[in-house]
Design brief:
359 residues, alpha/beta, 9 helices, single chain, seven-stranded mixed beta sheet, 34% helix, globular, binds pyridoxal-5'-phosphate, three-stranded antiparallel beta sheet
């Protein structure tokens, strides 16, 4: 059976090698005569899976020992609220950097629990740029600063890591494990798995130990980061099958050569696609060059009335899910870790040919 190149923003492509392994182990995992889906989360077998998953993640992005790794539910969206529940302590304000639709949604969720102090916003420039690193000034009174490292909808990605006198909370849902990062500069990283590291259902939280001891008496146990860290993320049943698949994705990435190797491949893919867009008269990506995402590449067709044709021709050639987000329209190619270089090559070739025929 042929697999398409799937440019969906999320849930997105998984490595074929991982899916093939899942298929081969579906009925009987590790000689158990039962699927992972059918194993107790309290069994020593599942415990080994979730522990391996943590070990592999720690290895891949060098997570220091004083950070906890949690595998929770709810998706990133839920944690927009859960984070203030856990991290506000006695503080009453949160600093935010507003660089696109996701950081804005996060701020509006957090606004229910604290005063929002907008440290920088690129909204007046239609989210086409990044704030200047030297212009960021934080309030020492705020509990933390929240930002989104990669704006999945707008196609904007931070090209720098910044420092702050308060803990930095990073939404890395759409670019975690796509490049090297210095975890020690951050207080908390969170990511829904379904873009870059696995299937939907599990949300990864990486949190610095000292942030777990703030006042959080009224947080439901399931979303209490401290209690979950003391219970191997298993106060209740975790999304066991999603965690198992994530573990396979992490192992696959380690075998590939780790995040460094993946970063190199991601750079090649995004450079190739932006070059294709920039050198064409038909396609356009509006994002300032130093703010462009390596993961999500939105673009428009400058000629009216060609979008349907573009999408259906692409689909016929096995290039699927290229329509842009419903809120911004146009096209978007999401080229996460699992998208092979050959997929981007095929897309560029298609785009060049389409322009020759109709542009
Ligand atoms: C997709 C996405 C979210 C929302 O994730 P869910 O898991 O659907 O809640 C939040 N932030 C970013 C950056 C995203 O890409």
């Amino acid at each position: 059976m042929e697999r398409n190149y799937n440019f969906c923003a999320g849930p997105s492509m998984l490595p074929t090698e991982v899916l093939t392994q899942v298929q081969s182990e579906l009925l009987s995992w590790n000689g158990m005569g039962a699927s992972v889906m059918e194993l107790s989360h309290r069994s020593k077998e599942f415990e080994s899976i979730i522990k391996n998953c943590e070990t592999n993640l720690r290895h891949l992005i060098n997570i220091p020992d004083n950070y906890h790794v949690l595998f929770l539910q709810g998706g990133a969206y839920t944690h927009f609220s859960v984070i203030p529940w856990n991290l506000l302590g006695t503080k009453t304000s949160i600093d935010v950097i507003n660089t696109g639709i996701w950081s804005k949604k996060a701020a509006s969720a957090m606004q229910k629990y604290a005063h929002i102090n907008v440290v920088a916003s690129t909204e007046s420039e239609n989210f086409r740029t990044l704030p200047d690193k030297t212009s960021l000034e934080f309030s020492k009174e705020s509990a933390f600063v929240h930002y989104c490292d990669n704006e999945t909808i707008n196609g904007v990605e931070f090209s720098y890591q910044f420092e702050a006198p308060i803990p930095i909370v990073a939404d890395m849902s759409s670019n975690i494990l796509s490049r090297k990062i210095d975890v020690s500069k951050l207080g908390l990283i969170y990511a829904g798995a379904q873009k870059n590291i696995g299937p939907a259902g599990v949300t990864v939280i990486i949190v610095k130990d000292e942030l777990l001891y703030l006042l959080s008496d009224r947080v439901p146990d399931i979303f209490d980061y401290k209690k979950q860290s003391q219970n191997l993320s298993m106060i209740n049943t975790p999304p066991t099958f999603s965690i198992y698949i994530m573990d396979l994705v992490l192992k696959y990435l380690i075998d590939l050569g780790g995040v460094e190797k993946q970063e190199e491949i991601n750079r090649k893919k995004s450079e190739m696609l932006y070059k294709c867009i920039d050198s064409s008269a038909l396609y356009e990506n509006p994002i300032e060059i130093n703010a462009r995402s390596r993961m999500n590449v939105p673009f428009i067709l400058k000629e009216q009335g060609l979008e349907e044709k573009f999408l259906s021709d692409a689909r016929n050639q096995g290039l699927i899910n290229l329509e842009g987000h419903r809120s911004v329209g146009g096209m978007r190619a999401s080229i996460y870790n699992a998208m092979p270089l050959s997929g981007v090559e095929a897309l560029c070739e298609f785009m060049n040919n389409f322009e020759k025929s109709y542009g």
